[in-house]
Amino acid sequence: MAFNLSLGSLTLLLVLLQTVSAQFCSFWNNGCIDSLAQTAIRFDLNPLFPDPVTLYYGFDVSSSGKGEGPMTKTAFWLGYQNNNINLNAVDSNRTSELGLRIGNLTGTPSGANNGCDGIWGEDCSRDLKSALQNGIYRLAVSGEYYSKPLEAVLSKMLAKPPPLPSCPPPTLDVAAIPVQDFAKERVPDKNVTIMPPGSGAWPWQVWYLDDMSARNQASQVAVGIISRAPSYNSIPPDGPDDIMVELVCVQAPSSGASKSSQD
Q1: Global pTM?
Q2: What does the longest C-alpha to C-alpha distance in the chain come to?
Q3: Are 193 and 90 in contact (CB under 8 A)?
């Protein structure tokens, strides 16, 4: 049977295909993201992950939002080789988490601590990591129940910011820091449960920022906070320095094109 498609029909088909593509992930669908801008950065998470992992951060925008101004939809996830885990590093019950802080922070990521030193300086990176390590350590030895140590400590720090003498005042001036746990280590079997790598079709966390335009969010620095900390009711570490905390600073492009950076 012959197949005949007129120019008008072809145009209609293209319009329909574009419409379906545009609606593949709507702005209000919090289970996926069709990023207007997206960035990625590779960094090390030794010793559990022998190979570098990649943090992906992207956002979409609605000019009307809830009808009162622009709004952005933000998402993040990790990509890694989840079949390449250093089981020799598993000697205690631990939980690894990733939080992403966005808002009231601009600049250009550069330098050590995965670009964060170029935002607020080496001393601030040190103070912030130390505050997180101390907070997680105190939580681990307190006997207080928690399911995700980093999330619990960040919640407390946002409610009552600790002294960060070398950091700019807005460092913890955000409403919330979404957190996702992505690795759970268990002994004595040396078992590690890893969150599957994310994607735009399956981001780990999605949230919305009111009164944020694409231009404003593109100027913001997103700060990734990664921890590998004692799980609840596990043997506490000898001290705060035994708790791994890493910082990663990224910035989404100001145009619709995506970019990536690598240390």
Answers
A1: 0.87
A2: 77
A3: no
